[in-house]
Amino acid sequence: MVTFVDRVTLHLSAGKGGNGCVSVKREKFKPMAGPDGGNGGHGGDIVLVADPQVTTLLSYHHSPHRSGGNGGFGMGDHRSGAAGEAVELVVPVGTVVKDVSGETLVDMVEPGMRFIVAPGGIGGLGNASLANQKRKAPGFALLGTPGWEGDVLLELKTVADVALVGYPSAGKSSLIAAISAARPKIADYPFTTLHPNLGVVQAGDVRYTVADVPGLIEGASEGKGLGLEFLRHVERCTALVHVLDCATLEPGRDPLSDLEVILAELAAYPVPEGQLPLLDRPQIVALNKVDVPEARDLADLVRPELEARGYRVFEISTVSHEGLRQLTYALGDIVAAHRVAEAAKPVVDRVVIRPHGSEREFTIRVEGGTYGDIYRVLGAKPLRWVQQTDFQNEEAVGYLADRLDKLGVEDQLFKSGAQPGSTVVIGEGDGVIFDWQPSLGSIAELATAPRGTDPRVDVNPRRTTSERRERYYERMDAKSEARAELETERIAAKSRQNGQDDEEQV
Which cofactors does it use (predicted)? Predict the structure, then answer.
C-alpha cells in the first residue's frame, strides 16, 4: 500500500463574513438615541503552514474538502459579531501551491512559512459605523461578503541536497540505507521504491540530506514508468549521483548505456524558470556492486572512459561499504561549497512603491448583446460593494449608487458609450444587472450647449419683471377682446329678439 502522496487537489471554501446590524439605541427618556448596530465578524481564512515534521500530502488525498468558519452577525448596543475560525493546513516543506490554470502561487520552501490560500469574507458594517454628519441615522447595514471558493493544486518537491538517480534495482535504496539512518524498502525486483526516501548524512562537519528518487527508464520524461512522477523531486537538489549497476544480468545493458539513458531523460525534463538545468549541476558517478568479481572487472573497464568525460567516479559496494566514506565526503565538499556560494550572494531587498490610485480599481468591458451593447464593470471594489448591498432596502441601494459615483464608474460608462437605459452588469457571469440611469453630476457631457454652459443648470425658470408685465398685458388684452366679443354677440342676440317681438305685434 502506497502511503506517499506528492500531488493533490484541494477544494477550499473560506468562511463567509457576517452581516452588519441595523439597530437604534432606545433609552427611557431617549427612544431614538442614535444608531448602535454592530459590525459583522470576518470569515475564517484557510492558511497553509510549512511543517518540517510533515513528509507527505496523504491526509489531503483522503479529505480534500476544507472549509473555514463563518463570521457572526453584528448585534445592537455596538456588539460586533465573532470572527470565523481560521483553518491551518500543515504541508511538507517544499510544497508548491498552484491555481487551476497551473500558475504558481507560492513555493513553501522555508519551515514555518505561512500563506493565506483562501481569504475569508469581510464582515459587513453596522449602521453605527455608517453614520456621519449627513447620514445621522442610517436605516441599513452592509452584508458580509462570501469567502474565497475554488481549487488549488499542492505539489510536493523534495528539498534535498543530493539526489540519487539511476535505473530500477541499481542499488539506490541500498546506498541511502548504508550512508544514513533511512530504512527504505529494499528488494531484488524493479520499481521496489514507489516514493522518494530521504536520509541525513554526516560527512565530517558537513550534514546534508540525500533523496532516493524512484528508478528512471528510457522515456520517463514522456510519462513511461514512474520516473516522470518523481523527477520533480530532483529540481531542488544541489548535486546528482548516478548510481550505475555493474552487476546487471539484463541483456543489452551496461553502465555506459544506462548513463546515456539517464542523461537523456534528465536533459528532456524542463526545470522551472530561473533554476539551473539538471545537467549543469555537479554530477558524480557511483559504480555499484563492486563486491561481485565480475562487477569489479566491469567497473575497472568503464572507469577510464567515465573519467575522460569529466565525471568523478567512485567504486562502491553497499554490502561491504567499500568506497562509501570517500563518496560521502566528496558530496559533502560539493554541498559545503554550494552553501558558501549561496551565502556570499548579496541579498537585495526590492522595495515596490505604488502611489495611491496608481492602479485602476475597475475596468469596463463592452460586450455585444442581442438587444444592444452590455457594459460590464469589473473590479474588486465594485464587486465587493454589490455583495455588501441589500437590494431590498432602497436606502442601501442609494448608498451603493453614491459609492459607484464617487469611484468614477458613471463617468467611465459615459466615456465607453453608455446611454441612459443601457444594460450594465457588475461582475463576471450573470453578475448584477440593472438599467443605467445616470445622475446629473456624472453626465454633464451629455448636454448639447456651448462650451462652459449647461442648459439644465443655466436655464432659470423664474420670469423677469418685464416678462411678467408683458404676460400680464397679453392676458388683459385677451380678456378685453373676449369681453368685446361677448358684448357684440349679446347686442346681436338682443337685436334679433327685438325684431321677432315686433313681427309678433304686427
Answer: Mg(2+)
213 annotated binding-site participant? yes
172 is annotated as contributing to ligand binding? yes
| Calpha distance 34→21 (Å, rounded) | 13
* Residue 166 assigned as binding residue: yes
Domain with CATH 2.70.210.12 in the chain: 1-156
Of 151-155, 249-253, 455-459, the one with minimum mean pLDDT is: 455-459
Residue 480 assigned to a binding site:
no
Residues 174-232 have pLDDT tens digits of 888 888 876 655 544 444 444 567 778 888 888 888 888 775 555 444 444 444 455 67
Q: Could you tell me the CA-to-CA distances from 435 to 207, 301, 391, 407, 424 in Å, in that order? A: 69, 85, 14, 19, 6
Neighbours of 325 (CB within 10 A): 13
168 annotated as belonging to a binding site for a ligand: yes
* Annotated binding-site residue? 69: no
Q: According to the annotation, is 192 in a ligand binding site?
A: yes
Does the annotation list 289 as a binding residue? yes
Residue position matching grid coordinates 510533515: 54
Q: State the span(s) of the chain assigned CATH 3.30.300.350.
A: 363-446
Q: Is 9 annotated as a binding residue?
A: no
Find out whether 317 is annotated in a ligand binding site: yes
Q: Is 504 helix (H, G, I), strand (E, B) or coil?
A: helix
User: Is 104 marked as a binding-site residue?
Assistant: no
291 is an annotated ligand-binding site residue: yes
Determine whether the annotation assigns residue 111 to a binding site: no
To the question of whether residue 134 is assigned a binding role by annotation, the answer is no
User: Do the beta carbons of residue 22 and residue 141 sit within 8 Å?
Assistant: yes
**Using CA atoms, how far apart are residues 377 and 369, in angstroms rounded to an integer?**
15
Question: Is 160 annotated for ligand binding?
Answer: no
Please name the fold of domain 162-344. Rossmann fold (3.40.50)
Q: Is 261 marked within a binding site? A: no
CATH number of 363-446, picked from 3.10.20.740, 3.40.50.2300, 3.30.300.350, 3.40.50.150? 3.30.300.350
In the chain, which residues fall in CATH 3.40.50.300? 162-344
To the question of whether residue 290 is assigned a binding role by annotation, the answer is: yes
Is 1-156 CATH 2.70.210.12?
yes
Query: Does the pLDDT value for residue 470 go beyond 50?
Result: yes
Percent of the chain as helix, strand, coil, to the nearest 5:
30, 20, 50
* DSSP codes joined into one string, 38-74: PPPPPPPPEEEEE-TT----HHHHH--EEEPPPPPPP
Q: Can you give the pLDDT at residue 496? A: 82
Q: Is 272 exposed, middle or buried (0-12, 13-18, 19+ CB in 10 A)?
A: exposed
Is 71 among the annotated ligand-binding positions?
no
